[in-house]
Specification:
Length: about 100
């Protein structure tokens, strides 16, 4: 089972593209939940509710990408709060790509 310190270590590599500082150093990670089955939920917020949407999406995708590769992680759900486009960005990050036929 993956442990919280390993997740935090990966999250420390996620850098806010506007300020160039890791999201962990700015205390933007609000919650990390891990189930015994390997499901990881990460809640975070940004420095401002009107952060450019492309940067907000980039951060959310980077969180999911980095944590997904850890041993013991089966699925990652990312939940951003406090942003004017949080609902749309969360949907995009957490919806699996459509299967190609």
């Amino acid at each position: 089972m993956v442990e919280k310190p390993a997740i935090v270590k990966e999250l420390s590599q996620v850098v806010d593209p506007e300020v160039g500082v890791p999201i962990t150093e700015m205390d933007l990670v609000d919650e990390i939940t891990i189930t015994p089955e390997g499901m990881v939920s990460i809640g975070f917020h940004l420095t401002a509710p009107f952060c450019p949407p492309m940067f907000a999406l980039e951060i959310a995708q980077e969180i999911k990408k980095r944590v997904s590769v850890l041993d013991g992680v089966k699925e990652v759900k990312v939940s951003m709060t406090g942003h004017f486009m949080a609902e749309e960005i969360n949907r995009r990050v957490n919806t699996p790509p459509a299967a190609k036929s």
